[in-house]
């Protein structure tokens, strides 16, 4: 199956975001990954609702919002209203997991549950029936440009097997340190959505880099 690429704009040129978005579109990338950090859940602060609204106006790309915030339940409806298609939140956050999934669904967006590298795969099992996607973090959330943690691949395998046993055709996304080499590990383990920030935006030729990520699924 062909992998979907989600370009993380955390590594984009923020002063030229519109051009960066066009570049993502022109290179045949399907999704735009929008990392929201509150400075408490993770040790970094990024952007939020007003920026997402502008991004939504600029593109028809699938908007994949990754909330790294302490209380996602409080904000998911507003992120959906500002244009998110998928909303990922962390199981390690303070919000009730089932209530947050339900609130995302009710707001019209697709719910995804994210787990940090140290969180066991089994923690997502009870929610698989209610999710469209699981996000397995392949670095500690907080910053772009970190190195891929290979041990997380076992969790991708475990979640893929469990989803298959439940006959759930769920998407599994990997995020952090994805490049032409690590993408192959992730795809072989059962991931189908590859988030990539620094690898795509630092490439001389984004189309070529995206092609290399895709060829990982052969
Ligand atoms: C990290 C973010 C990632 C980040 C990935 O906390 O969730 O989405 O942008 O960046 P790279 O691909 O550079 O590791
Ligand atoms: Zn992310």
Blueprint (SSEs and pairs):
Elements: E1 4-8, H1 17-26, E2 31-37, H2 49-58, E3 62-68, H3 76-81, E4 86-90, H4 97-106, E5 110-115, E6 133-137, H5 153-165, E7 171-175, H6 182-189, E8 193-196, H7 198-202, H8 206-215
Parallel strand pairs: 1-2, 1-8, 2-3, 3-4, 4-5, 5-6, 6-7, 7-8
Bound molecules: D-xylitol-5-phosphate and zinc ion (ZN).
Description:
The protein has helices spanning 17-26, 49-58, 76-81, 97-106, 153-165, 182-189, 198-202, 206-215; strands at 4-8, 31-37, 62-68, 86-90, 110-115, 133-137, 171-175, 193-196. The mean pLDDT is 97. It is an alpha/beta fold. The structure holds D-xylitol-5-phosphate and zinc ion. D-xylitol-5-phosphate (DX5) is lined by residues 8, 10-11, 33, 35, 66, 139, 141-146, 175-178, 195-199.
Highlighted features:
218 residues; alpha/beta; 8-stranded parallel beta barrel; binds D-xylitol-5-phosphate; binds zinc ion
Briefly note the structural class of the backbone: alpha/beta
Distinct ligands: D-xylitol-5-phosphate, zinc ion
Strand percentage, roughly?
A: 15-25%
Q: How many helical elements?
A: 8
Mean pLDDT: 97
Distance between the termini: 8 Å
- The arrangement of helices and strands along the chain is EHEHEHEHEEHEHEHH
Give the low-confidence spans.
Answer: none
Helix fraction, binned, reads 25-40%
Shape: globular
Radius of gyration: 16 Å
Strand arrangement, major sheet: 1-2-3-4-5-6-7-8
